[in-house]
Design goal:
about 45% helix; about 5% strand; 11 helices; alpha/beta; 8 strands; about 425 residues
Length: about 425
Amino acid sequence: MFGAGGDQRPMSFDIDPLAVDSNALIVTYPTPNLVGGNSPFPMEGVQQYTHDSNVELVVSHSKKLEDDLQQLGEKIKHQEENVSYLKTLRSKLEDSIFDILVSIGKHHPTLYKEENGKASCGESEEETTQHIMKYENSAAALLCKIKSEVQFSDDLLIKDVVGVVATLGKVDDANLSRILSEYLGLQTMLAVVCKSYEGVKNLETYTKDGLINKGSGIHEFAASKGRHLDGRFHVICLENLRPYAGALIADDPQRRLNLLKPRLINGETPPGFLGFAVNMIKIDNSNLHPIFNSGHTLRETLFYNLFLNLQVYNSREEMQNARSSITTGAISLDGGLIKSPGTFTLGHYRGDIDVKFPCDPKKFVQSANDSELENRLKEMKWKKDRALEDMQREQDLLDQAKFKYEIKKRELVRFIAESSSYMTQYQVGCVSTPR
């Protein structure tokens, strides 16, 4: 590519309409008529030019073609930036819509249907506690019993205990409760949660030989009730957990985490994606305040460490189709389970985990906050529709600019090819002809 003086120019966009042969896509263009010899550049109406003026015409037309390409290139860059901006805007609006749907409970499917075809609304808090109490020799059952007895309400043993994992959160339906409980497993569902390490030490002490002191802590209480602890039990210490370090969803009363939504290669959210497990847990208002002075809640500490970025999908098929965007693990409401990328759990659910999260179906009474969120949802959907329309229009303009660019580039290449023989002849003539 060359211009006057041989300077190099970047290519670009938008020019005057071109005369294009629709069949051959060959561009016709005006070229100078060279005096003397068989010129490949016929120009009607022009009788005679000097060699110098012909060279100037060649250089001038070449420069014009390069300038046209540069203008088209700049237009393409501008349209690409517009399309990129609108795609980013659309993604942000989709994320906002998604977060609002989760907040008002409209992003979850209908209640789980059991094998007999009847809808199940899941178990209540009382039923969850009853299932825990069936494991009478577990630390979880013993602590539930301690908390139920008034005389132990200020006991050092339990004053730092937040509760049992299964009792610290609720979900919207029985199906979600079942699959989340299966994902965590029975030992984790029965794990005792303490605020600090002091609470952990109060549960169990040891002799100088490293043996368990059966005369203190929860073992002492078990013995007083004629029971003994069966094997090991899990205790989770909140102050020793690494909390979620990101932002929260703005104005969300449940303080849900603003996690980065999964994206397919095309930039779209995977079909069937319902949300992150950590955000689908409902936490009672009493546990929504930060723990100690850390400024972090149960969602940012306990449930984030249990679920991390576990994704929830509507069906197995949709979950499997989204494998490329699953970074931690995933579950589906029809029983699909991916513990970690590349590790699949197959087969039927056996129903051997009876300790599940309580269900708290969304009430039909709409709160003032929900009404405000509904209005925001409508606004976000309207903005998304406008962004899609603008993006389609900008994409059409981009495609047109690219087409014009290709036509103009062919024109320049052809002009250079057809003018090169004349320029060679002219340069030879300048050398052989004395002045």
